[in-house]
Amino acid sequence: MNDWASRALEAIEKGEPAALVSVLAIEGSAPREAGARMLVTEDASVGSIGGGNLEFQATLQARKALTQAPGDWRIQDYPLGPFLQQCCGGRVRVLIERLEPSQAGWIAAASGAGRHHLETLLNPGKLERKLLDVPDRTPIGARGAIPMAGERMLEVFGTPLTPLLLFGAGHVGRAISRILDGLPFTLCWHDEREGSLRTDMAALAREATGAVLILTHDHGLDYELTVAALQSQAQFIGLIGSATKRARFRKRLAGDGFDEAALDRVICPVGLPGIVGKAPEVIAVAVAAQLLLLPCFNPPIFTDKPLP
């Protein structure tokens, strides 16, 4: 669960005054993406909308909201350069709301990992929300008229999770599993020494759709899994090893009938180029950084015509 959501639910349960700050839209350079959230109480904040003067000013406004009735809300625009003297130079539109008990439902439902679609009805004195499928609507930006009471918005927020198959529970595999906490991946981890069967592991590799990391203790098993992964729709196939191992695997794979395009799908040595340390923790950072270069989506905000 997201930290801001956990703290928000706790505040609602205890009847503690709390305000939620949500980034609705950005334009140009901005410190966080649309969908970022921060929970503000009288003496603390959880989560972040990007730090700096933007977050400082939004926190001040959120604390003012704590003096208002539960359900009170406002939308504010922040031009980062001229107004906040932040050199990013972009614009940020935020929603600040005084939380009230009816908001617990959507927060609990949407606070898990993954991408969510949240419709907000901007009723006077109270926001009404529900999770739903995405209809076709026109996205709003950080300029133009601020949405008013009587309008509705559809927010797409959260990060899609990429399935990650990790083969190998050695030092590097364990270091990678630790560093993935909080990153946009769902981990499925297997190791022959931990009871996983080779045939089952190869079957999983052949069905991969996300990322595959092959880091086992056995070069023969590494090769079997590489062949299996090349038969899949995996977006990324990473193989631990040296340039020598890469050359040997490419030669063997070519002899087994794989063409140049297939050979180029196998990234070996795995890890972001330029990070040369060999400690497991260093390799884990390099691999995680390389995985984060995989395609991802930006969460937009949508608006609709005023409600009748």
Tell me what the structure shows.
The protein has 308 residues and is of the alpha/beta class. The protein folds into two domains: 3-111, no CATH class; 162-291, Rossmann fold (3-Layer(aba) Sandwich), CATH 3.40.50.720. The chain is built from nine helices and 15 strands. It has helices at 3-14, 52-65, 104-110, 171-179, 198-206, 219-230, 243-255, 260-265, 280-291, and strands at 19-27, 37-40, 45-47, 73-79, 91-98, 116-123, 126-131, 138-139, 152-157, 162-167, 185-190, 211-214, 236-239, 266-267, 301-303. The protein has a five-stranded antiparallel β-sheet with strand order 3-2-1-5-4. It has a five-stranded antiparallel β-sheet with strand order 7-6-9-15-8, with helices on one face. Strands 11-10-12-13-14 form a five-stranded parallel β-sheet. Strand 6 and strand 7 (126-131) form a beta hairpin. The longest helix is centred in the first third of the chain and has 14 residues, at 52-65. It is elongated and about 70 Å long. The mean pLDDT is 88.
Provide tags for this entry:
25% strand, 2 domains, alpha/beta, Rossmann fold, 308 residues, five-stranded antiparallel beta sheet
CATH T-level fold name of the largest domain: Rossmann fold
Query: How would the global form be characterised?
Result: elongated
What is the CA-CA span between the terminal residues?
36 Å
| Helix and strand pattern | HEEEHEEHEEEEEHEHEHEHHEHE
Instruction: List the domain count as a whole number.
Output: 2
User: What's the pLDDT, averaged over the residues?
Assistant: 88
The helicity comes to: 25-40%
Q: Approximately how much beta-strand content do the residues carry?
A: 25-35%
